[in-house]
Amino acid sequence: MNYDQLFEAQLDQLRDEGNYRVFADLERHCGSFPKATNRHGSDEAERHVTVWCSNDYLGMGQHPKVLEAMQSALAECGAGAGGTRNISGTNRHHVLLERELADLHRKEAALLFTSGYVSNWAALSTLGSRLKNCVILSDALNHASMIEGIRHSRADKKIWAHNDVEDLRRKLADCDPDAPKVVAFESVYSMDGDIAPIAEICDVADEFGAMTYLDEVHAVGLYGPRGGGVSERDGVADRVTLIEGTLGKAYGVMGGYITGSAALCDFIRSFASGFIFTTALPPAVAAGAAASIRHLKESQLERARQRRQVARLRERLDAVGIPHLPNPSHIVPVMIKDPVKCKMISDILMDNFAIYVQPINYPTVPKGTERLRLTPSPLHSDAEIDRMVDALSQLWAQCALSRAVA
Known about the structure:
The chain is of the alpha/beta class. The chain is built from 15 helices and 14 strands.
């Protein structure tokens, strides 16, 4: 049997549908985010581009305090952690980072993972499998990591309509009142940029004795007076049983985590295979993340500047009739609604305008909702915003796309 032929057939189908992904070979420029060098072609010719789709939302991946902390820890501890946390990999920097995270969310404890994907997968799969007769109620638009964790747990699951509190109430009412129940949802949904009604969800969960599991990966660092996320901004973090987050987006480094009661974190630590059998984060990464969290607990400058640039981008898009999804978050989805045109516009932006923004196609978003997902940072200049909007306006005409009606 020719297995490569089987692989290529499915890859060809992706290409025909306009959903095949091509990676850009980028080198970020330290100290000049969002600039990067794109190496392309067989001779790897270089050209400078502006990145518009980074999840390093505040540019903290190149902040001097973060770099200094990482360089210092690297000199002190070396490159790797040396093993899993259970055997030889727990380092002082891991302990200090978990304390910072627990304090950030005003919880008793925190637990580190190698990524936000792993923290969701490990925590939800452990809760669902270890709590007898557990039912997990998952928002319809939850991230793939949450879906995979729920699936792996083999627990009974119910999908409730996105951000629909009344549908959640109906689903909870159908559950066995004596069964453990986990309501799993996100604060900021990364593709549409909408925000969950956390307080109302907690009200319903409390009514039926369910625990709440909140993914804040696209919100930590960005919302709340100390960057504790939407739950901190809304004053409801104390009502959420478990808050999960990432260190790889607004904090600019990498890793994932959960926070909650001491018993909850110890439970996940003791039973989650995704924690037990995974090599720990390098100490330098943990030190950089802790420095980033400490800075954003105190500084409002990055968040204020980002909000200004998001508002400016939206105003400029409105002025030229480029359709973008309205939402209260920092994510600006520019709607194309055609996979081939979405990829084509992305390619032309890179080739003709030195603007890098990846097309977002199926399966990341439903077919017919293809888009460019723009994430303006505090380090995008007004001139860069104007240049992006002017480029989109030109391409809208070339590609015969409809404009929004003001």
